[in-house]
Design a protein that fits this description.
- It contains 14 helices and 15 strands.
- The chain is α+β, with helices and mostly antiparallel strands and 441 residues long.
- It folds into 3 domains: 12-155 and 306-363, no CATH class; 223-289, no CATH class; 386-430, no CATH class.
- The model is unreliable at 1-53 (pLDDT under 50).
Length: 441
């Protein structure tokens, strides 16, 4: 087992430099870049880092969680908190993942399960700045992660940081007078933006036609399901108590779509009839919401930045979300059954290393075999198996022939596309003495 606090966990204090800020999380750098990251210990060595150092300048950080099965009494990090897995009943740990704009992982950190995004961000800002020096980095964050106080610190001229942050849907309506009469500028296919400045920040209102169609379709699907259930209640006319319970259930299932339906329920003691129980769709509210669908309001302290670049950078957050989906589904990081803290850390480390390999394979596929996913490739390559053929000799010894199975035709084509070659078959070997181990049955 890899020692979790060995060479993988870089400590700045060991290089003679000031220790990290108190309370800041310790990062586990990607072992694939280990030698380069350790080269950051002095100012003169930093320029040698090349692509890796540049990746830290444009990295993105986001949090996710993974839950445990069991009480986890021996793991101090296992705590209840906001569950991104939909399991608030289980203890969990929070994982922070740092990736490059291309999706390559740089580092990760395992934190207490009750860690929130806002309380972690300042520690990450200080930790990366203390470890890798000040630079004109861009921090790309989803809405709700940074507080206004942290954004004010990042706008401080003494701290050369730039940020790009998403805002809530309410901000779009709040600043409607600012952008309503501004012209749209096309930055890419099916994406248009409007720009305006407010309090020293650049606001970018982006409209994506593809996302707008998707959000409208999702809402209409939920709304149609809600109306079907309400019509079924109006046909059956249950008692008032049962009616209220059913309405509560459909409200939970409908989510925000429930707010577009006006429902009239009978008063206490009043019988449930088709007159006392009725509903209508608020078409004006629905139309207004559909006009706002696919709109994103971004804010940045880069007032002179190209809006097309800002939109592209913000979309890179989907790389992190894709990484978390891959960690949790394809690489099986959840749930965790280990009880001891160091075993949990080892479990997450192995999943992180597997993700590093998966991202490398994904980028290789984009060059040589676009259209294939890492999962499909691994399933295809899994048909190549290694076996040992044991052949008895006349003097009681065994001739052992290690062999791998010959790939099928489609697997051979895949290997050619990826520019991979299978090694030659291993040479045979023979046991030296008749008393050698018998082959497994």
């Amino acid at each position: 087992m890899v020692e979790m606090r060995s060479r993988l966990a870089y400590r700045k204090s060991e290089s003679g430099n000031p220790p990290p800020t108190a309370g800041a999380p310790e990062l586990y750098p990607n072992p694939a870049y280990g030698s380069d990251i350790e080269a950051l210990s002095t100012e003169t060595e930093r320029p040698k880092l090349g692509r890796t150092y540049g990746a830290w300048r444009q990295s993105s950080t986001l949090l996710t969680s993974t839950y445990f099965e069991g009480e986890m009494e021996e793991n101090p990090k296992a705590k209840h908190g906001y569950s991104r897995d939909g399991r608030p009943d289980c203890l969990q740990v929070v994982i922070a993942l740092v990736i490059t704009p291309d999706g390559f992982p740089l580092a990760y950190e395992v934190m207490d399960g009750n860690t929130s995004d806002r309380t972690t961000l300042r520690g990450f800002l200080d930790q990366i700045e203390n470890t890798y020096g000040q630079a004109k980095r861009m921090w790309i964050m989803d809405r709700g992660i940074p507080s206004e106080a942290i954004l004010a610190e990042m706008r401080n001229p003494a701290r050369p940081m730039s940020y790009l942050v998403g805002t809530s849907k309410g901000k779009i309506k709040q600043y409607e007078k600012k952008w309503l009469d501004l012209p749209w500028h096309k930055v890419r296919d099916a994406v248009e933006v409007k720009l305006f400045e407010q309090d020293g920040e650049l606001y970018v209102l982006a409209k994506s036609e593809g996302r707008q169609r998707k959000e409208i379709a999702m809402r209409r699907k939920r709304l149609a399901r809600l109306l079907r259930k309400l019509r079924a209640m109006r046909r059956s006319l249950p008692s008032r108590d049962q009616l209220l319970m059913r309405i509560g259930a459909v409200k939970t299932a409908a989510g925000r779509a429930f707010g577009f339906v006006k429902i009239q329920v009978p008063e206490v003691g009043q019988p449930v009839t088709r007159v006392s129980f009725c509903f209508t769709v608020d078409k004006n509210k629905l139309k207004e919401a559909e006009l706002r669908d696919g709109h994103y309001l971004l804010r940045s302290n880069l007032t002179g930045a190209d809006p097309a670049v800002l939109w592209t950078r913000y979309v890179q957050l989907t790389q992190i979300e894709s990484a978390f989906r891959s960690l949790k589904s394809e690489l099986g990081i959840r749930p965790i059954y280990h009880h001891l803290e160091h075993r949990v850390d080892a479990h997450i480390l192995i999943a992180f290393l597997a993700y590093c390999l998966q991202v490398t394979l994904k980028n290789r596929l984009s060059l040589h075999a676009p259209g294939l996913t890492p999962t499909a490739v691994m399933e295809k390559l899994a048909t190549i198996q290694m076996i040992d053929v044991w052949i008895p000799t006349l003097d009681g010894r065994w001739l052992i022939l290690p062999r791998y199975t010959q790939p099928e035709k489609d697997t051979k084509i895949l290997l050619q596309k990826l520019k991979l070659e299978l090694p030659t078959q291993p040479p045979p070997r023979i046991t030296a003495h008749p008393a050698a181990l018998e082959p497994a049955s």
